[in-house]
Amino acid sequence: MLIKKQLFVCLLLLISITVSADDGYRLWLRYDKISNIALLNKYKQQIIAPAIVGNSTIITTVKNELEKGLRGLLAVNYTATDSVYNKTTLVIGKAGNLNLGFTVIEKTQLKNLGEEGFLISTTMHGVHKIVIAANTDRGLLYGVFHFLRLLQTQQDISTLNIFSTPKIKYRLLNHWDNLNRTVERGYAGASIWDWHKLPDYIDQRYIDYARANASIGINGTVLNNVNANATILTKQYLDKVAALANVFRPYGIKVFLTARFSAPIEIGGLKTADPLDAAVQEWWKQKVKEIYSLIPDFGGFLIKANSEGQPGPQDYNRTHADGANMFADALAPYKGIVMWRAFVYSQQSNDRFKQAYEEFTPLDGQFKSNVILQVKNGPIDFQPREPFSPLFGAMPKTPLAMEFQLTQEYLGQGTHLVFEAPMFKETLNADTYEKGKGSTVAKVIDGSINNFSMSAIAGVSNIGSDINWCSHPFAQANWYALGRLAWDYNLSSEQIATEWLQQSFSTNKTFVAVAEKMMLQSHETLVNYMTPLGLAHIMYNGHHYGPMPWGNTLGRPDWNPVYYHKADSAGIGFNRTITGTNALGEYKNEVSNLWNDSNKCADEYLLWFHHVSWNHIMHSGRTLWNELCYKYYAGVDAIKNIQQQWNSLEKFVDAERFIQVKQLLNIQVKEAVWWRNACLLYFQTFSKMPIPANYEQPDKTLAYYQSLRFPFAPGN
Ligand code: BDP
């Protein structure tokens, strides 16, 4: 009897362990049964005999997702029918298919939903049901995912009046994935694209990837690295791409590719890739035709040209516009687009900050209408904090796309917890003053300021074949945030963090409050222990892992960290005012006025724009040197505090992910100390000032930090 009892207890234990283990694979689509019994019962009364009217591959996706979601969340096996019965309380369908006697006002509302918007309403005229309506199947897909999000985050669904349309048209991931499955700047394992086994082998991951993206409104993906390999454009590989496109189509996701500018030479046997050469133009036309014959809804090309050694039109004395327009002409008959990247710094200039602006603003107005210029958020390169790129606000005749980096190349890579939404929003909310006050970067991007219908936001993917997709459990939140903000950049970081936590971990209020605080503090914390006060690009050369502010051995000045901080005995920082490189002159006066006086410039941007003395008095009253110390120490303290906050959450989190995050935070604390000590010891060689005695002093020497090597750091 006793043995039996023990066995039973063991079994119970085993069950509870299996239930709670979570490897993170399900992302924010866990659909676990709602634990609040009262709410669960209420939902069950509110959702009866759901009906999905319509028939298409996307409708099948919608149906499967709804059934999967309700099966998990409510533990009820529904089969959605395609007719509405009296007892039906949830009706899903395209406005035209729903014979619900909509009023004139409601019909107009429905029309305004456009191609991808949806409404979820319990108050439609004469219909006492929950109605999810849209003009297209894609709209329904987004509507159903939103509805499931409401349930997962345990919202009251008794009265709903949601009207939602995306602010941005192309909401994309950019994979920097190579054909050999390495991922440039990837920290989450090998590329998820198993090119070798494609097209015949369809990994379940491809489907799960598409679902996850659709759930947050992402509608396109660039499969391969911007440092492109022409092989992707061969028939052999296009067949593989087509197989992926077939998987993604039912989820409303289009496939895009990067195009290597010199492909006509490399795989086409031509002698030149000159964009004005008739044979080259014809080659691309035929190539594009071939692509569309295999992938009728192919999205278009993303192109990195004349940047970091990539071939481009300048190799033939042509402009970026000449290059982009050649692709635009080839794609136009099929409604494909060109995303031409503005990340260039090959031209000689006295300041890398200024180069994209110098190269592209003279071309404003010269691009064909299906070209969008893809600009990184800041002028340099995805640094922990950058002022917005001066191209935003300076190209009124060219639609501009935003490129954010989800993968944390400069943000602690695979091991640091950094929630990027606050950083993205900092850029999106910045005012360019392009057309007067309120011309935020977001409004430049969404096309509203200059009346463009084409708009795009891209996130450089942080996805790999790690079981939890992104390596760090919290890195999933950055993928999530990209999708949500591209749909609606007015969502707050708080809201995004909350809903992500509720879906990915737990709806427990204590848990969410603490974890959300951790997330919201995390970006500023990293800035403080890595690059406070406007420092930038002081990472190790090449792999960019760890601090190397002393780096000065590479061939070009702007490849070396010392170029970016310019520390000397007089002070530190890059003078970009009129007495320096005058990069500030690339902004509208209202913007440069905010930053061009070192006594008024916000601390965050001080060293971006000014070379100031070590004794410069900061807004806090401290000297620059002491403020630098203060920030570095505050960063380390804050990450230690975040570590403690996480440790207090053990009882709310499955053991697997709790321990993962705990170990990663231990690494992060260690590395924060490393960053702080290495940077302060190095800058001290110029300031010749002590680290204030009240701080714990570095326990290693500068020489020690300088001796560290990481030959196999990932992502390089
Ligand atoms: C830099 C990366 C490099 C990319 C480049 C780009 O270090 O690997 O190829 O950006 O965006 O941040 O093209």
What is the element layout, followed by pairings?
Blueprint: H1 2-20, H2 37-46, E1 51-53, H3 57-74, E2 90-94, H4 104-111, E3 118-121, E4 130-134, H5 137-152, E5 161-164, E6 170-174, H6 204-215, E7 220-222, H7 235-248, E8 254-258, H8 263-266, H9 278-294, E9 300-303, H10 320-331, E10 337-341, H11 355-360, E11 371-376, E12 400-405, H12 421-429, H13 441-445, E13 456-460, H14 476-487, H15 493-504, H16 509-530, H17 561-565, E14 571-572, H18 589-595, H19 606-609, E15 612-613, H20 624-647, H21 655-687, H22 702-707
Parallel strand pairs: 1-2, 2-4, 6-7, 6-13, 7-8, 8-9, 9-10, 10-11, 11-12, 12-13
Antiparallel strand pairs: 3-4, 3-5, 14-15
Helix pairs in contact: 3-5, 9-10, 14-15, 15-16, 16-20, 20-21
Bound molecules: beta-D-glucopyranuronic acid.
Beta-D-glucopyranuronic acid binds next to loops.
Short description:
The chain is an alpha/beta fold and 716 residues long.
Q: Describe the strand arrangement of the main beta sheet, using strand numbers.
A: 6-7-8-9-10-11-12-13
Q: First CA to last CA: what distance?
A: 61 Å
- Tell me about the largest β-sheet: 8 strands, parallel, barrel
Proportion of residues in β-strands = 5-15%
Estimated structural class? alpha/beta
Q: What is the mean pLDDT?
A: 95
Number of domains: 4
Number of helices: 22
Cα shape? globular
Quaternary class: single chain
CATH fold topology of the largest domain: TIM Barrel
**Any ligands, ions or cofactors bound here, and which?**
beta-D-glucopyranuronic acid
Instruction: Report the radius of gyration as a whole number of Å.
Output: 27 Å
**Annotated CATH homologous superfamily of the largest domain:** Glycosidases
Quickly name the level 1 CATH class of the largest domain: Alpha Beta
- The residue ranges in which pLDDT falls below 50 over 5 or more consecutive positions are 9-19
